[in-house]
Amino acid sequence: MKVVALVPAAGRGERLGAHVPKALVPVAGTPLVTRATRGLLDSGVVDAVVVAAPADHLGDFESCLAEFGDRCSVVAGGADRTSSVRAALESVASGAFDAVLVHDAARAFTPPTVPCAVIEALSGGAQAVVPVLPLADTVKQVDADGVVTGTPDRSSLRAVQTPQGFAEPLLRRVHASAPGSATDDASLVERVGIPVATVMGHPHAMKITTPFDLQIAEKILVEQP
Ligand code: C5P
After folding, report:
1. pLDDT tens sequence across 71-128
2. Helix axes 58-65, 32-42, angle to 10 degrees
């Protein structure tokens, strides 16, 4: 199965409070986007990576990714995550790959077992696959005033990670037909009624969003094999 991974990395990372785009923030000297790309290519299941970068930082991203040669290309991302994924997808020739992974640059410490499990599920016939973890916290639904309106049954809830995997024609179809934006790509597939399978995620695939997350990465995740 030929696999391309799209890495949306065009976020500003305001919640991280950094002065550069989040994906360029180094952890132990290596930028998040370099770590995320290396993890995908080293997993052995990804043939090529396309990174969507902020339009005004393309050169910086190209420098951070130069070590991967022609296995990695950089395109200008869009105003939100969905448009960044779409820009990366449009840069890939239709039909050149069987499957597409979409992986947040911010999940830079994702172990190779996760993309491998996603690709295995796609090889087994799934059209769309997401890595998930059970929730430790009880989750409440609230109204606009913050007053609790319900408590969904925790046993049926999952926290969703990336890389999310798709049959290539399906991802193209849902991105071509879905206007607006979504916080992940699987939700575009859900909207057209196609089942989305799940595989086990990993705690190290956490999304680095806040300064606290960055400290976890610097103190714990870089030490992991
Ligand atoms: O904002 P959030 O943390 O959900 O972003 C998830 C991923 O989407 C990040 O890797 C971020 O760089 C990317 N993103 C993007 N283009 C945007 C906004 C976010 O590629 N305009």
Report:
1. 999 999 999 999 999 999 999 999 999 999 999 999 999 999 999 999 999 999 999 9
2. 40
CA of 22 relative to ligand 1 center, distance in Å: 9
Residue of minimum CA distance from atom 1 in ligand 1: 11
Question: Quick check: CB of 77 below 6 Å from ligand 1?
Answer: yes
**Residue range 49-68, pLDDT digits in tens:** 999 999 999 999 999 999 99
pTM of the model as a whole: 0.95
Q: Is the CB of residue 24 below 6 angstroms from any atom belonging to ligand 1? A: no
Residue 104, number of CB atoms within 10 A of its CB: 26
Instruction: Give me the CATH topology for the region 3-129+158-223.
Output: Spore Coat Polysaccharide Biosynthesis Protein SpsA; Chain A (3.90.550)
Is the distance from the beta carbon of residue 108 to the nearest atom of ligand 1 less than 6 Å?
Answer: no
Measured distance CA(58)–CA(52) in Å, rounded: 9
